[in-house]
Amino acid sequence: MKLAFQHIKKRFGDLNVVEEFSREVDSGELVALVGPSGCGKSTLLHIAAGLEKPSAGTMLAGGKPVRGPDPERTLMFQENALYPWMTLVQNVALALEFQKVDKKQAEAQAREWLEKVNLKSFEDYYPHQVSGGMRQRAALARAFITRPKALLLDEPFGALDALTRMTLQDALRQLIREAGPTVLLVTHDVDEALFLADRILVFSKRPATVLKEFSLSQHEKTHDLSEFADMRREILGLLGIHAKHEQDAEPVSETQESLEGVAV
Ligand SMILES: Nc1ncnc2c1ncn2[C@@H]1O[C@H](COP(=O)(O)OP(=O)(O)OP(=O)(O)O)[C@@H](O)[C@H]1O
Fold first, then answer.
1. pTM for this one?
2. Which residue in 56, 61, 189, 200 is a FRET match for 152, CA 20 to 30 A apart?
3. CA of 39, closest atom in ligand 1
């Protein structure tokens, strides 16, 4: 599903959040939105999800104006919203039950998706009985089980430690490869954007405008992002973070902290 932001502007009262944003995200493409805290990235995601209306301009999904939320466009947050009183399998199955799929069939499919995200023996655990990374794996299974045409990911792994985050990024890439949704990813983590994205949009501080756009080669990426060192340095520079020397470039977790520090 192609997403098209056409001359989008957004104000909240006196606060000018998005100046004017026009971009298309092709079917099956993954575009990462990177920028200072509070610049308006999540607002753009909410407009794509149909949770916020633009003050001006048009949001199109699959060529049609977005008029509200739709299961075809699934939003996933940093804080997994699993229900604590339901097991992982019940949580994942619920997404299908909302779509009127029979409970037994929904649970059978939920078990398959939990297996895909390496949670096979944990299906019947409750969220508090598993780690934060495992809860986000379950949240990924729940996001994918309805086979949305567009996935809108808002800092999906922001609460996880760097190592767990990398394993979740691997799981996400695998799921995307299988299911092929269009993905918009908001992240503070430049390395996450480099690893996952086909394209990265770097935003200015509020009101959000695109400072620069980067296209990444499609070939197989690994977490060794050394071939993207120049791009990484340029992105960090645009965000006002300067790595002294290449060998001093911040590791993932510090990058995250530094970016948080650019809050406006
Ligand atoms: N519903 C709302 N009502 C009023 N102001 C809002 C609303 N949603 C967002 N804002 C404001 O708009 C600005 C941009 O918020 P947004 O969440 O889009 O930024 P962001 O770039 O995603 O930030 P972060 O990276 O910290 O999540 C902020 O100042 C925020 O307080």
1. 0.87
2. 56
3. 21
